[in-house]
Write a structure and sequence with these properties.
Layout (H helix, E strand, L loop, with lengths): L2 E9 L4 E9 L2 H10 L4 H11 L4 E2 L9
Antiparallel strand pairs: 1-2, 2-3
The structure holds zinc ion.
Length: 66
Amino acid sequence: MATYEEKSSYCKDCDKKVLKKRKGTNHLLHLILSFLTAGIWIIVWILTAIKFGGWYCSICGSKKVS
Ligand SMILES: [Zn+2]
């Protein structure tokens, strides 16, 4: 289950205003899993938030967005 956040931004590779995207974290799902695993899942939650936190251009996929 993937959710996406979108924001308007400027892409250096496209050289124009674009929509930037990043994968959103399903915090409700992680909260439930944390309860079920007595808090162990919090480690996975944090790692997921770090790994998938990067913004990228929705046109070319470049990470050079402001
Ligand atoms: Zn771009």
